[in-house]
Every structure is written in structure tokens, then in C-alpha cells.
Amino acid sequence: MNDSAKIDAYIAKHSKWASQLTILRNIFLDTELDEVIKWGSPTYSLNGKLVAGIAAFKNHYAVWFHQGVFFKDDEKVLVNAQEGKTKALRQWRFEENDTIKTQLVKKYVDEAVENCKQGKEVKVERKKEVIIPEELQNAFSKNKALHEAFKGLTPGKQREYAGYVSEAKRDATKQKRIEKITPMIINGVGLHDKYKNC
Predict the structure, then answer these.
(1) Exposure of 158 by Cβ count < 10 A (0-12 exposed, 13-18 middle, 19+ buried)?
(2) Beta strands in the chain, from DSSP E residues, in sequence order
(3) What are the tens digits of pLDDT across the range 22-31?
(4) What's the longest Cα–Cα distance across the chain?
(5) I need a labelling partner for 13 at 20 to 30 A (CA). Which of 19, 25, 50, 181 fits?
(6) Cα–Cα dist 29/12, whole Å
């Protein structure tokens, strides 16, 4: 199935918002942006750079602008979906009785394209190095398989585990946490993986 067919399927799956998503999609299709599926939803890019996307949720549907922080937003329609976490991404939410003003949406999409062409972009800060607490270091020296498995994890998962151990205040708690996470690390599982597909 190509991306276009996947997007048709995405819209069909979200039948509550199908007509609205189709209107938004047609606005994007009338631009120079490339339409792809990314993170399971319709996404639009220019020369490989993510510009925008559309998504459906239970109580609303939205347009995402990946570098929306640079918008003038004269109409004050954009929100930061995750205050304190999201630096550049902005979302325009629509609810059940909202009318899609196609010319206005097109104006915002055109601004997103122009910003992309001008290279306006929030640079992602590289995560700092993993600081391994002494107690976890000791566990590695006693269990080579644990150490090898830990080295095979992504830096993000390594940071989660290191932080989980170092955040404990008492030595006994640190040891209990190391006992708990040892089989998880050996199995290549991240500390919070079970919550990521909710």
C-alpha cells in the first residue's frame, strides 16, 4: 500500500472526522508539499523537511505545524500541545462544530512552506551524556551480561535507567531498583516501554 492509499485508510478509519480531514488534506495537496505517512498519520514535507501534518483524535482533529513557533499567528489559532516539552511544534485544533476556513488554513500552510524555504528551524538540543550512578556501575562489574545489555540500549533508555537508580534517596531503595531493572535491561526493554503504546 502506498502512502496515498494509507492516508485514504487513515481518513476512513477516523470516520467521525472524515469529511473535515479530507478538506484539510485537499488544502495540502494543492501545495508543493510531498504527502507521506509519518507516525501513522498524514504528514507533509518539503525537500525532506517536515512542515505539517493532520491528525484525528477522539474529541478533535488538528493541523500540526512542525516549526509553528515562527508563525505570526495573527488569528491566535495555534497552541502548544505540550507546554514545557514542545519547543517548535504548534497545533491548530478543530472541534465538532468548528468551520474550516479554507483560505485561512491555506494562508497558514503557505507561511509554513515559506518558513521552511527560509530555513527557519528550532535546532534540537542534543541530550546530555548518560551519567551512571555508582551503584549501577557496581552491578555492571559483577554482571557482565547486564553491562553488555545496557550498552546495547539506546541512549534514551540508558538515561531512564540511570536516572531511575540515582533518583532513589536510600541505598536500599537503589539496590531494590537495580534488582527490578536487571531482567528488563537484559531483555532490552526500556523502563517505560509498557506505557509507550497506550
Answers:
(1) buried
(2) 34-38, 41-46, 49-56, 61-65, 78-79, 90-94
(3) 999 999 999 9
(4) 65
(5) 50
(6) 18
Q: Please tell me the distance from the alpha carbon of residue 139 to that of residue 106, in angstroms, as a whole number.
A: 57
CA dihedral 12, 18, 23, 27 (to 10 degrees): -40
Check if the beta carbon of residue 78 is closer than 8 Å to that of residue 115.
no
The C-alpha cell of 126 is what? Answer: 542534543
Domains for the chain: give ranges and CATH numbers. 3-117 (3.90.1150.200), 134-196 (no CATH)
pLDDT at 126: 60
What are the distances in angstroms from CA 160 to CA 62, 90, 155, 182?
A: 31, 27, 9, 13
Q: Residue 53: phi, psi to the nearest 5?
A: -160, 165
Q: What is the DSSP letter of 125?
A: P
Q: Amino acid identity, residue 160?
A: E
* Other CB atoms within 10 A of residue 178 CB: 22
- The mean pLDDT of the chain is 90
Bridge partners of 52, per DSSP, are 44, 65
